[in-house]
Design goal:
The structure holds two protein chains of two kinds. Chain A is an alpha/beta fold. Chain A contains eight helices and ten strands. Chain A has two domains: about 200 residues, Rossmann fold, CATH 3.40.50.620; about 80 residues, no CATH class. In chain B, helix 12 packs across helix 18 and helix 14 runs parallel beside helix 15. Chain B is globular and about 95 Å long. The chains are: A alpha/beta, B alpha/beta.
Amino acid sequence: MQHLQRLEAESIHIMRDVAAQFRNPVMLYSIGKDSSVMLHLALKAFYPSKPPFALLHVDTTWKFQEMIAFRDQRAKELDLDLIVHINADGVRDGIGPFSHGSAVHTDIMKTQALKQALDQYGFDAAFGGARRDEEKSRAKERVFSFRTAQHRWDPKNQRPELWNLYNGRVKKGESIRVFPLSNWTELDIWQYIYQEAIPVPSLYLAKPRPVVRRDGALIMVDDGRMPLNDDETPEMMSVRFRTLGCYPLTGAVESTATTLPEVIREMLVATSSERQGRVIDQDAGASMEDKKQEGYF
Amino acid sequence: MPQNAHETAVADVEAYLRAQEDKTLLRLITCGSVDDGKSTLLGRLLYDCKLLFEDQLASLQSDSARFGSTGTRELDLALLVDGLAAEREQGITIDVAYRFFTTDKRKFIVADTPGHEQYTRNMATGASTAEVAILLVDARKGMLTQTRRHSYIAALLGIRHLVLAVNKMDLVDWQDGIFDTIAADFKSFAANLGEMQVTCIPVSALTGDNISRPSAAMPWYQGATLLTHLETLNVGDGLGDQPFRMPVQWVNRPNLNFRGFAGSIASGAVQVDDPVVILPSGKTSTIESIATYDGPLTRAQAGQAVTLVLQDEVDVSRGDVIAATTDRPMVADQFAAHIVWMHETPMLPGRTYQLRLGSMAVNAQVTEIKHSVNVDTLERMAAKSLDLNDVAFCNLSVDLAIPFDPYSDNRTMGAFILVDRMHNATVGCGMINFALRRAANIHHHAMTVTQNTRAAAKQQKPCVLWFTGLSGAGKSTIADLVEQRLHDFGHHTMLLDGDNVRFGLNRDLGFSNEDRVENIRRVGEVSKLLVEAGLITLVSFISPFRSERQLARNLLQDDEFFEVFVDAPLAVCEQRDPKGLYKKARAGEIPNFTGIGSDYEPPENPELHLSASVFSAEQLAEQVITLLRNQGIIAAE
């Protein structure tokens, strides 16, 4: 078997085991390329049935507008259950990345919001699209990652994982985060998207977009909520995004790649890793690990 | 952008993807100690395969200055692969991490596992999915105890290809004599490991010699570099040629017109119209179709995740195996297997664990530890229990006959994990060697007079009243009173008392944890026989461990077992001390005394909770009688 076929089969195996082992699983759908691949694999795993779980999107209210439109359209055309959860407390308190900074915003609108949703619906398993090649602390992540009733991850107390035997036993309130794309790399993801013609938001393709330069990152002015300094004037530049998240926290790269093959070609000669565009990773070296322990995906 | 630029990109990417079409996946494990330079080797592979981005290199440069141990201004490549903050502080790797690198020929997934003494568990985990093991030795030190240990565990987990990377050749002046001696030592040792293909390569991870680039410093070495070897190694597992097996993961039933069985093919191939057997039921059918999202297939083979539709309406559920009719897996409820224990709480024979094999989950016990294995010397030793990182050859018994193959023939069909039923931790893993013949040749005989007819003759429902609690809580006193009342009503009873049973049936057992488990197992089996005889059975045993009480409960039906917790605080029991045992225990004369030298685990959901420090024994006995009436064991007044 070719390596993408092996990866595909492994991911399908993981998804079917979750459907069989858990009472109430959910798929975290973040609209990006990894989520798009994960959703596509779910369609394959359960065919001709529909995936036997809902999609959950934790909406921070600061996503790119196009992401939201893409999300709603996909859910509609595939006729899937889509749960959108927004942290109402955060909205009431006016939490946002500009007013409160990226750390507070991410904690309240993303991490806390996710915990609220998991508690509210009582999910005992949640699929996430994280890959082991993304970041150092992810390299040790299990496919089935155990979380306490408080949603905490304890890197020292994870279950050994052998062969393709996944232990999904949990007590009430505890849960498992499941990462079916663990063994995929960024290049695998793009190759698979191309090979299978999987729809992804066009933010991944280059287009002239209004951006300002902040702290070395190119930030797109996606709506009127972005406060501009006196010396800032949005400039139209041909840019694309390597990851998608909250628009104020997601740096664009200059690019002329307007088609998928061009994106793949640019990536084959790329000189910076994909998480570089994410503002939250650039604190102290092990920050992703700290965030995960608190329940971030 | 002009149209032809797009076309060029499409053509480039198409060409690239075509070139990748034959790319295969190889899974590796690297083993070695902290000092052998394992992390440096992995960092070197990533670096040489140009898989580092500029920002990762920049971060590596700043990390090298902060944490680096190379002692030079050079990049410390090891830091690329040392993940968690805790590890950085300790300067060691503490768990299994997975790394990825790729060349034009292959994609590699590397399980990076630590090499120090206490981590057999991690290595077994990494080896379970690996096809090749790379063992590192320091050229200055040669083969160490741990080299033997890693080779043994790799072989135990079914790895058939070992690469011995003799590292740090730069520190021994690139001498061929040193390499030759180490390689010869290793090859003579590896001859004991069964079918193992061994390749030895002299390298320096620090300088990159013979990693991806042939070494100019070692012209005497004519073999392939490490990377070339890994790119060209043929690891054909032969699974495609084996008989067809597919554990059923999930039943796919979108509507009344479709019923498919989803799973990953463990071995062999299957075609439409092939006859198949469903195990353990033994029912047969024929493949009607093979459904996938990308359209129906006429044939599917090992490794593919498919959905099979059968021609007949046979009963199939998760845990069953669909197999070739001609060459079937074994089906048995007792087998011999190697076990690697992976948890701090020891494995005790007789204790019940959940065993997960393929997609099935059953209850299992180790019935006998044949011998444990000293992984450093490969010596066999006697053992009564297994501690973390112990390896042993054991007999196991499961509560249902299950289909399996020997692990050496089929990893998927012969591998299992053991799960603690209380805490849900994965506590051990195992590789099946063979079915035990005695299981295959003993069959239940259906008798005419049954438990129900025996019980009906006595106008009672048989059951077990299991009294548990600390020594001195009043178990035997209450049980005695209950039995007197039942006897007065004309019921047929039997009382098993801990001390009395230890004079006879269990006189060979002591008070170690292993023996306590066996003690309760035997009493559980005896009570089951008494229930089959139609008796109301009273068991008065301290029975301190939840898992053993659960074991006894599992032997009986739900409405036949009543756990009665005789609850008195330790201080009260110690003050009563009817047999003077607490005094002796406090004086250190009785080791492992429950409540003092050994734990008592109180029941979480007993059928009856008696407050033995509040009420009199007569009042408590009456509560038990009321329970029996309410449960329909004896007639209401």
